[in-house]
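A.,

Following up on our hallway conversation. Structure tokens first:
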């Protein structure tokens, strides 16, 4: 017996159900793909990080190598000259700036509990008595004679840790003199050793794992110059022959694929090269500005700005927030926080009106808000900083595809 044909309403419901099932299947497959990609990135991060850093270094040094080649130097000699110059610059920075940054980092870490206690007291005073908060903050930060330090001295900490240990030894059954030790006295000691040995073994294995991870990181960073050297040496061949490596037959589809890949590559080179130069300029300006207002840890904040300001706006606000916390905790007045805001405003104005237009111009094509959303999404979905960095190429892919196949058709219609 044949079933009757569905009515128009029933057919609409059936197609809606099939569409919903297809959308749910695609959503599950996409979530599995993102999860798998995150696991792959986590596993291969020791390999991907050096390659990514080497690619950025090669993008930065490529214009200098090309300039020397135009002056008559061979490609190999140009790369060696650029590497020698870069080594001198890095060595000079490490010899002059790095020791001060390490010193400031140690000082900031040692004073972090003190700064935290001061800020906590300020917030408590503000919550309890807001009208008189300014006077209380000033009184709190004024040094008073005979005041106890905010940080527990190492001697007190050592004593508090050794007292329980002494108590445990005294309760273990061991007499104070060795002459009266019997076989029964070793029972508690053996039980204690049997209980603590698994913890000691896990701790030792954890330390071995950490040492291995650090050795792998150091080995990966040591390979960055090697990767960058070969990327620069083979860049001409890569640029001219990479289309032949694509496993696609010569067709209209291959031409579109080559166009999309070239556009993505151009956007990425322009972004990383330009944004790193902008971050370096911002770091120099932040360091000079913080030093001029007498803010401590100015070099440390400037060094942190190099990495943080790679993310537009978000990194700059992070640097400004850290500087405000240090200014409030160090000086306890309103003048230095206002000076920090003034430095931040001047640097952002110079970046927006002078630095970014001259360095990056309109070549990047990725809006700063798109970069921020891509980094935050990649960090959340793909896991870790590497996922956030790799989200920028994915945003460039999306931008190129939309510009090529969506916005272009709308403009044409």
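Then the amino acids I'd put at each of the 413 positions:
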């Amino acid at each position: 017996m044949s079933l009757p044909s569905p009515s128009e309403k029933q057919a609409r419901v059936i197609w809606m159900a099939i569409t919903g099932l297809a959308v749910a299947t695609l959503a599950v497959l996409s979530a599995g793909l993102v999860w798998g990609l995150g696991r792959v990135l986590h596993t291969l991060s020791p390999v991907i990080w050096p390659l990514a850093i080497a690619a950025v270094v090669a993008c930065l040094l490529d214009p200098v190598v090309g300039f020397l080649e135009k002056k008559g130097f061979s490609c190999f000699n140009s790369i060696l000259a650029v590497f020698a110059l870069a080594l001198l610059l890095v060595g000079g920075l490490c010899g002059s700036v790095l020791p001060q940054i390490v010193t400031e980092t140690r000082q900031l870490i040692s004073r972090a509990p003190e700064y935290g206690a001061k800020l906590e007291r300020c917030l408590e005073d503000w919550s309890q008595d807001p009208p008189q908060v300014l006077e209380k903050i000033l009184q709190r930060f004024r040094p008073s004679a005979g005041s106890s330090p905010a940080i527990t001295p190492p001697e007190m900490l050592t004593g508090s840790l050794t007292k329980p240990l002494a108590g445990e030894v005294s309760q273990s059954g061991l007499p104070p003199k060795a002459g009266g030790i019997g076989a029964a006295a070793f029972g508690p000691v053996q039980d204690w050793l049997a209980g603590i040995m698994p913890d000691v073994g896990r701790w030792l294995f954890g330390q071995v794992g950490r040492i291995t991870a650090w050795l792998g990181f150091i080995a990966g960073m040591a390979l960055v110059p090697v990767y960058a050297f070969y990327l620069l040496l083979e860049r001409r061949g890569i640029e001219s022959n990479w289309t032949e490596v694509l496993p696609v037959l010569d067709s209209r589809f291959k031409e579109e694929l080559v166009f999309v890949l070239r556009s993505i590559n151009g956007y990425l080179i322009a972004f990383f090269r330009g944004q790193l130069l902008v971050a370096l300029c911002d770091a120099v300006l932040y360091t000079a500005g913080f030093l001029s207002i007498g803010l401590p840890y100015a070099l440390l904040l400037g060094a942190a700005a190099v990495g943080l300001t790679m993310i537009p706006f978000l990194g700059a606000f992070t640097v400004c927030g850290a500087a405000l916390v240090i200014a409030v905790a160090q000086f306890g007045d309103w003048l230095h926080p206002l000076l920090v805001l003034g430095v931040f405003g001047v640097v952002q104005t110079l970046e927006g009106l002078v630095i970014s237009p001259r360095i990056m111009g309109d070549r990047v094509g990725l809006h700063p808000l798109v970069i921020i959303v891509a980094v935050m999404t990649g960090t959340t979905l793909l896991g870790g900083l590497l996922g956030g960095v790799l989200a920028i190429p994915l945003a460039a892919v999306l931008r190129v595809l939309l510009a090529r196949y969506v916005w272009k058709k709308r403009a044409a219609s």
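Residues 2 and 11 are 17 Å apart (CA to CA). Curious whether your intuition agrees with the design.

B.
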